[in-house]
């Protein structure tokens, strides 16, 4: 579950990026986070995973106040979250397999478990046959799917995706969205930021709309 209680964020020297944000995303819920460029979408995502701290209010993730966690407690929090970025942040000098394996290597998992989980993740995103490729040998959509496989390899119960379809055409964007919906159907809480209203318009999921740092919850 993700809960924001009267959350505000101001970057030093700037105007408020988020003002008095209140919402709850229930376990297993899926929602879109929309808004114009600079509305505060990335800031909100970064607050959930502890990459930024709120100036005011509480950000609760599975009941834990993220803004009060100590630096050394952060890795425990991050294990429960899968993060996907627009620019996917893959290591270009590592194979697809290695990129997906990284979170598990960091956690010190046994090689056999790593093999099993990486294969399962790559299978889910349809890239099992490309595990030995390097990211440069893949299309933009495939690279994005490697980033998704890496985000789900540790079985997170929350998936945060910040403009995951930003660089992709309509067909690929719909494919990626379908993938998130499939994860959501297995009980994963999903929050996906996008400025692509056409992509989300006919979907049933809740829309959290940011307008200059203020939240307007639609439907
Ligand atoms: N590290 C930072 N330091 C100072 N100001 C920042 C920082 N990051 C974001 N901002 C400012 O906070 C506001 C919200 O930015 P944010 O990146 O959260 O918006 P966004 O909705 O994700 O935009 P986009 O769709 O363009 O990615 C903007 O005014 C931005 O300039």
UniProtKB/TrEMBL annotation:
Q: Which residues form the signal peptide?
A: none
Its GO biological process terms?
A: cell division
Gene Ontology cellular component list: plasma membrane
- Ranges where the ABC transporter domain occurs: 2-219
Classification via SUPFAM superfamilies:
P-loop containing nucleoside triphosphate hydrolases
Q: How does it sit in the membrane?
A: Peripheral membrane protein
Keyword Membrane among record annotations:
yes
Q: InterPro entries given for it?
A: AAA+_ATPase (IPR003593), ABC_transporter-like_ATP-bd (IPR003439), ABC_transporter-like_CS (IPR017871), ABC_transpr_LolD-like (IPR015854), Cell_div_FtsE (IPR005286), P-loop_NTPase (IPR027417)
**Which cellular compartments is it found in?**
Cell inner membrane; Cell membrane
Which terms are listed as keywords in the entry?
ATP-binding, Cell cycle, Cell division, Cell membrane, Membrane, Nucleotide-binding
Named from the GO MF annotations, one term is:
ATP hydrolysis activity
Superkingdom, according to UniProt?
A: Bacteria
Q: Main role? A: Part of the ABC transporter FtsEX involved in cellular division. Important for assembly or stability of the septal ring.
Would you identify the family this protein belongs to, as annotated? Belongs to the ABC transporter superfamily.
**Self-association state and partner proteins as the record states:** Homodimer. Forms a membrane-associated complex with FtsX.
Protein name in UniProt: Cell division ATP-binding protein FtsE
Which source organism?
Gilliamella apicola
């Amino acid at each position: 579950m993700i809960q924001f209680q009267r959350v505000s964020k101001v970057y030093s020297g700037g105007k408020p990026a988020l003002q008095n944000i209140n919402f709850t995303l229930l376990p297993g819920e899926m929602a879109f986070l929309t808004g114009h460029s600079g509305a505060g979408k990335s800031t909100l995502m970064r607050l959930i995973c502890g990459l930024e701290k709120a100036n005011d209010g509480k950000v609760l993730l599975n009941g834990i106040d993220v803004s009060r966690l100590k630096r050394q407690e952060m890795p425990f929090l991050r294990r429960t979250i899968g993060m996907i970025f627009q620019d996917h942040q893959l290591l270009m000098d590592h194979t697809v397999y290695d990129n997906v394996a990284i979170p598990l290597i960091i956690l010190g998992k046994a090689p056999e478990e790593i093999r099993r989980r990486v294969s399962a993740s790559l299978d889910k995103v349809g890239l099992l046959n490309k595990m030995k490729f390097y990211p440069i040998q893949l299309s933009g959509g495939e690279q994005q799917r490697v980033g998704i496989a890496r985000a789900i390899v540790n079985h997170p119960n929350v998936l945060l995706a910040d403009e995951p379809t930003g660089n992709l055409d309509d067909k690929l964007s719909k494919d990626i969205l379908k993938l998130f919906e499939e994860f959501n159907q297995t009980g994963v809480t999903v929050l996906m930021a996008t400025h692509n209203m056409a992509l989300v318009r006919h979907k049933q999921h809740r829309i959290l709309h940011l307008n200059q740092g203020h939240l307007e919850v639609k439907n």
